[in-house]
Amino acid sequence: MPCLNEVETLATCIGKARTAIEKHHLAAEIIVADNGSTDGSQMVAKELGVRVVDVVRKGYGSALIGGIAAARGEFVIMGDADDSYDFRAIGPLVDKLREGYDLVMGNRFAGGIEAGAMVWSHRWVGNPALTNISKLFFQTPVGDMHCGLRGFRKDAIETLRLRATGMEFASEMVIKASLHHMKIAEVPVTLRPDGRSRPPHLRTWRDGWRHLRFMLLFSPRWLFLYPGFALFGVGAVAGALLETGPK
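-> structure tokens emitted (247 positions)
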């Protein structure tokens, strides 16, 4: 669980994760990757007996990279610590991993988005647009590129050498897994309003641009080659029209 000032919801998330571990008879550990909380989140986690990994470098991706590196299990389930995802529902992700998949994504659009859980611009514009761009650029086989609840084989993901420090980490994981032809599956998950009284860390325009910029930089064809062909074609047509026009 990446964590930055989640004291209001962290204990609930840990409790639900423990319920899932017991229900599915998993040999598992719970890791809180803390990214510099100042509200006592670390103390809550330690009092509940879970591992706290302090990640100094700031950013959502940084926290997850640190947590994944510290994990000792074969499989890793990552999920936000704001109680928007129910960790008691991780069974289908674990089942898919046991079937041999390298990455198992949650799909909020298939599982349901409760009222107030996602702003309209993210639900109807941002997420669908970025997901469809990733399909066009990289043939990613997922319908929800940015779901925060997902599972993966640790050894497989470590081969991808993920580097994104911000929210674009979510895109980097799926894109690189697709380019490496890893086995990817999706399962429906439900998104609920998070339990915090403060605004979320996500910033619509800043983080949306970071996702798009990452995809463009990772696909030189769409950043340079195809726009270059298009501009060349427009120039050629304009030149022909000027050449054959009235003297």
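The chain has one domain: 2-244.
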